[in-house]
Design brief:
globular; mainly alpha
């Protein structure tokens, strides 16, 4: 099996495995000679930007991919809480959560589904390359965010309605994690969200730079593994972490929710979504996409 590191390509878009030299392609790409040689930074930038353009050109398919991608992130949130329930040592609990959560981004990238934080960085690269307008970029981010949130909430709603193993100690763990994420000061939450996508979108770029299946999956796993054990804030992951205790309490009133609310106030889900969306946008665009684009341009000019 060979993993397609690009989004599933339709007839209107073709992104070759080895990108031909272009204004941003940088120095000659030795990957044509060695199938295990990573692509150049310029070739990687071209592939990531082309993925964003392809998604924006098929809005209904993009919406469905965002719904599925949001559910996949919630898979990771559920498993992370499950494996860390009852673990008293904070470092060990964080390690277990990261190991369980890592598979979510692997599923998204390998299947060609969509995650808003990845689309923020990819679309920004397309804007910098002038293959996407700012208006289309805003549309991409808006649709992707809504689709991911709805997809994640649908999955955690099913888990909340199920109850069973998700009550008792698990519900207490979910409430504790959700309260900790929702209760952080605005500045702290914002900067942790920046750090999150600094980790995650670097991993995405390395996924598209790699050529072997093993390397691609390892990079995809590293992103969520790093941001979870680093204690950072990811907007869609937090929909899972905050949504689970809220929905468990909705379906099973005895389940704790730790003071988390649905609204804009303190410990509010909407408040957290707003803060982390801004932080994730800054981290993925200014600290990942922009530097890689600048590097590609400088390599092309041989500076």
């Amino acid at each position: 099996m060979t993993i397609n590191a690009e989004a599933p390509q339709l007839d209107s878009v073709s992104v070759p495995d080895t990108v031909a030299p272009s204004p941003s392609a940088g120095p000659p790409d030795r990957s044509a000679e060695d199938p295990f040689e990573p692509l150049s930074v310029g070739a990687m930038v071209d592939r990531v930007a082309a993925m964003a353009v392809e998604k924006a050109s098929h809005p209904w398919a993009f919406l469905m991919r965002s719904l599925v991608g949001g559910a996949m992130v919630a898979f990771g949130a559920l498993l992370a809480l499950m494996v860390s329930t009852g673990v008293k040592t904070p470092g060990v609990a964080s390690l277990l959560m990261g190991l369980a959560f890592g598979m979510s981004f692997v599923l998204i990238l390998v299947s060609g589904m969509s995650l808003i934080t990845a689309d923020m960085a990819a679309g920004f690269l397309a804007v910098l390359k002038r293959t996407m307008t700012v208006r289309v970029y805003a549309f991409l981010v808006g649709v992707g965010l809504v689709g991911n949130i709805v997809g994640a909430l649908v999955f955690v709603a099913v888990c909340g309605a199920a109850g069973g193993p998700y009550l008792g100690a698990f519900a207490e763990r979910a409430a504790a994690v959700g309260s900790q994420k929702a209760g952080q000061p605005v500045g702290t939450a914002l900067l942790l969200a920046v750090i999150c996508t600094w980790f995650l979108q670097t991993a995405m770029c390395m996924f598209f730079k790699a050529r072997s299946d093993v390397a691609r999956m390892a990079f995809a796993f590293y992103g969520p593994f790093a941001f979870v054990i680093g204690g950072t804030q990811h907007v869609i992951a937090n929909v899972g972490f905050l949504g689970l205790p809220l929905l468990l309490n909705l379906f099973h009133h005895a389940a704790p929710r730790g003071g988390i609310t649905w609204g804009w106030g303190e410990h509010g889900l909407l408040t957290n979504i707003g803060i982390t969306t801004i932080g994730n946008l800054i981290g993925g665009t200014l600290f990942v996409a922009l530097p890689f684009w600048v590097i590609a341009r400088l390599q092309q000019r041989q500076i």
